[in-house]
Specification:
Elements (H helix, E strand, L loop, with lengths): L8 H9 L9 H6 L24 E5 L2 E4 H14 L6 H27 L6 H16 L3 H10 L4 H21 L8 H13 L4 E11 L5 H16 L4 H8 L10 E5 L6 H7 L7 E7 L2 E12 L9 E9 L7 H16 L4 H11 L2 E9 L5 H8 L10 E3 L3 E11 L9 H27 L2 E3 L1
Antiparallel strand pairs: 1-2, 1-11, 3-4, 3-6, 5-6, 7-8, 7-10, 9-10
Helix pairs in contact: 1-5, 1-7, 3-4, 4-7, 5-6, 5-7, 8-15
């Protein structure tokens, strides 16, 4: 039996939870919050009749209850991933999408159970602990505290872990064994890759919203609001996971590395004009609307200079408090002229000491990890040359000196086995989407 070949479950659980960008920073809050005395007046009045022990059902799916609390706690994960930048109007739409996701999750767990597939509490706790270790570098207590602080709960994320594990095991038994990719198909794809060597390849994220003629205008308006939220700093991965109706929703809308010829013409022409980090949409396509985000761009089977590993020295000085822009510009000019006179990396430390500058050395910097404006500047340097000065009045001025460079090897492309696995995964994902549609069609769902 073929196992479903996927990226690690933990990263998918975080994508699904909308936590990919939210976990990590809160450690300090969870661990280092100030401790103080809680003062409660003797004569208090309770405003409202809210009782946290009363759980009102929002939907009943084949007899299993999804409560308003379940929706609120899952919604809190997405809001936190978007740094709380969600408008009240958007919150209502997002709540409905979260409810739909919880219904799908319930159907997946029910179907797995009907197929005698069990996920033990110990397995769920183990996966949860790995999430805590990878994102908090310590115990689950830190993650528990963070989830509670943002209005969610450990139980909410554990339920999502349960759903992901159950669905993966179900697909491994009921779908994967019936997916076949022939050797001829793989060899044909390898030949196409070799023929396309040197052509541009794109890594694209997509949010696809299906639209029938009756609701086309409404879906387009919703897509436009999603684009606005994304441009205001929303997480593309979180929105893709919650909104996209494509099979790639589970991996944050990531289509992987593709050539534009593989896209519908409407998307291909739009993607061709994008730079990495840009998005465009909504774009009308057959059956609905798409929002696309260019994650990266490269050339097929060609080494990417941005994968070079650089040895850099960063030289920096701070401006005096209260320095004017004119004073800062003058000091930055003198600083740059002095550093440019240094005879290579061996001499720059001495020059920096004379200027009162700080020097930091790092010999494991990937060029692609540098900010976009600096990448080309650094890659065009020879050993011992420096970048243009950069910085701000608040942060001071900095320069980078190139001290070494290890260029990447030519990309030989995926192996036969890797490509076969990728093609099998794609077919499994498509059949999984059909499987879930069948479960939705046959479900008995009562809404409150």
């Amino acid at each position: 039996m073929k196992a479903v070949n996927r990226s690690t479950f933990i990263s998918r659980a975080l994508l699904a939870a909308g936590l990919a960008g939210a976990l990590g920073a809160p450690v300090a809050h969870a661990q280092g919050a100030a401790q103080g005395e809680i003062v409660i007046p003797e004569d208090i009045k309770i405003f409202g009749d809210s009782n946290p022990n009363i759980r009102k059902a929002t939907a009943v799916v084949n007899g299993d209850v999804i409560t308003g609390t379940d929706v609120d706690q899952r919604l809190a994960l997405i809001v936190a991933a978007n740094e709380n930048k969600v408008s009240p109007e958007e919150m209502g739409r997002l709540r409905q999408q979260v409810l739909r996701n919880l219904i799908d999750e319930t159907l997946e767990i029910q179907e797995a159970k009907a197929s005698d597939i069990e996920v033990s509490t110990a397995e769920i706790d183990q996966s949860y602990a790995r999430v805590a270790a990878q994102n908090f570098s310590q115990s689950t207590e830190a993650m528990d505290a963070y989830l509670k602080r943002i209005g969610s709960s450990p139980a909410s994320l554990k339920r999502q872990i349960h759903g992901e594990l159950a669905w993966q095991r179900l697909l491994s038994r009921n779908v994967a064994p019936f997916v076949n990719v022939s050797e001829d198909e793989v060899n044909e794809m390898l030949a196409r890759l070799k023929a396309a060597k040197g052509t541009d390849e794109y890594r694209i994220g997509e949010i696809y919203l299906a639209a029938t003629p009756e609701v086309q205008a409404q879906v387009r308006d919703n897509a436009m609001r999603i684009v606005e939220q994304l441009r205001d700093g929303g997480s593309f991965v979180a929105y893709a996971r919650q909104y996209s109706q494509a099979s790639t929703a589970a991996v944050g809308g990531d289509l992987g590395w593709i050539r534009l010829a593989q896209l519908p013409p409407e998307l291909a022409s739009a993607a061709r004009e994008l730079s990495p980090g840009q998005l465009v949409g909504p774009i009308e396509v057959p059956g609905g609307y798409s929002i696309i985000y260019l994650i990266d761009r490269r050339q097929v089977l060609t080494a990417d200079p941005r994968d070079a590993v650089l040895a850099l020295k960063q030289i920096s000085i701070n401006f005096p408090p209260g320095a004017s822009e004119a004073q800062a510009n003058a000091q930055a000019k003198r600083f740059a002229e002095a550093i440019q006179q240094a005879k290579g990396c061996g001499a720059v430390d001495g020059v920096a000491a004379q200027l009162g500058a700080q020097v930091v050395t790092n010999d494991q910097v990937r060029a692609r990890d540098l900010p976009g404006p600096l990448q080309n500047a650094i890659l065009n340097l020879s050993i011992g040359e420096t970048s243009p000065p950069f910085g701000s009045i608040q942060d001071g001025v900095r320069m980078l000196m190139l001290c070494g460079r290890d260029d990447p090897q030519s990309d030989s492309g995926p192996s036969f086995d890797q490509l076969m696995s990728q093609m099998e995964d794609d077919r499994i994902n498509k059949r999984a989407q059909m499987y879930l549609r069948d479960l939705r069609r046959d479900a008995v769902i009562d809404y409150n």
